[in-house]
Amino acid sequence: MAERYVMSVDQGTTSTRCILFDHHGRLVSVTQREHKQHFPKPGWVEHDAVEIWRNLKRIAPEALAQAGATPNQVVALGIANQRETTVLWDRRTGKPIGRAIVWQDTRTDALVNELSRKPEAATIQKRCGLPLATYFSAPRIRWLLDHTPELRERAERGDVLFGTMESWLIWNLTGGPDGGIHVTDVTNAGRTLLMDLATLTWDPELLAFFGVPRAMLPDIRPSTETYGPARRVVPGVCIAAALGDQQAALFGQTCFAPGEAKCTYGTGSFLLMNTGVEPVQSTHGLLTTVGYKIGDEPAMYALEGSIAITGALVQWFRDGLGLIGSAPEIETLARTVDDNGGCYIVPAFSGLFAPHWRSEARGIIVGLTSYVTKGHLARAVLEATGWQTREVVEAMNADSGLALKVLKADGGMTADNLLMQFIADVLDVPVVRPMVVETVSLGAAYAAGLAVGYWPDLEGLRRNWHRAGQWLPSMDPGRRATEYDNWQRAVERTFDWIKPAGD
């Protein structure tokens, strides 16, 4: 009998990847294609949604060919995606309304400031778990409706559709203008500022606040559910899961119990902790979000801490300062010294994310003396990721009433052993790395396979998880406390750098 596989699509910020996984959760084939980043104005970041759809049409058949498989051997397809990126398109033609506005885009800054002055703004976070910020989808939808002639009327008639990237891809896969299914899952809907976190439905008062017509929104479905068969690209394959990329990584890391957490270390880093079947409202600067929802079972919620700059700091050290030739060299350089020489780098290049949320902060290097070498700076670069992780974990422990016991780490930066050891030291808990590092893709595959019975249950998925590396804490508690105090004082010095206009 022919081998059967699950296909996973990870539609990310810089590329789209397609992977086939077998029953043991092993990667069988992988194809990937980058898409262009458009920066038409300062603070504007855009993607061409048609280019992304075209890329998927190319890489999915290539992944099958690589494995010597046909669509008939694929039991299910799961999609993970960059979350808040916003696409509007014409229901009849399938053509997008301009380019997609990416989650990093800050053009809605003035609109968010204007909306934040409304009395109803005070209730937003309680309803949807998110602060009113440019990061999320609703202000982008409103901006497009305000700045595109006649768009609002078309949206109110249901002729224009909104979706995040998984909605756009599912609609196209299932027929597009010819009967495409317009759906999103709870994890992506939960990043719009428009979904009630308790009922998991579009909230009429939030829709009214942002001025978003209900007719343009997709149906909200569980993360793990058979949405329908693909009619294009991989005809007949059941589309059975969708999750935002960070929730997919939580699923791929098998963080199925309250208190279990993962951190994905990339350009920025995202730490999610499973908090169980009740949403935990954060009072420490974190986001309350849906972790995942399996079919008719209750949703599992999570707390999320987003760190804006981690791997991007290493890239700046390489490209901006020219102190290393490649990213892996930073570990070698940092190992030329025993400590940071009293130097700390706070990478608030465009403000600080969790748990501070200070958009006016800017990056600093403090503690410089003539003793400090580029080796000390390299160590301070790596340590910045460790200390930012510590800040988020402390906030999560305080909000959830749970104590983190182990941190499951994934992403490109986990190849740096010195960094992983430092994170274990400053958290005072073990840090573990899985055998399969493609946890976003794996999570989408697990969710889809679960929906169609390819994997029987969550325990079956846990058995597939294997540890590839582990780092145990070894730092002296006194040194840990002193260094963390120094870091916190450094962070405070980044505050209030950008003054409001007119000051």
Protein architecture, described:
This protein is α+β, with helices and mostly antiparallel strands and 503 residues long. Helix content is 33%, strand content 22%. It is built from 16 helices and 23 strands. The protein has helices spanning 49-67, 109-116, 124-128, 137-147, 151-156, 165-173, 186-189, 204-210, 245-252, 311-320, 329-334, 374-400, 417-427, 439-451, 458-464, 477-492, and strands spanning 5-11, 15-21, 27-34, 46-47, 74-81, 87-90, 100-101, 160-163, 183-185, 195-196, 201-202, 219-221, 224-229, 238-244, 261-265, 269-276, 287-292, 300-307, 344-346, 364-366, 407-410, 431-434, 467-471. It has a 7-stranded mixed sheet. A 6-stranded mixed sheet has the order 3-2-1-5-14-13, with helices on both faces. A two-stranded antiparallel sheet has the order 4-7. Strand 17 and strand 18 (300-307) form a beta hairpin. The mean pLDDT is 93.
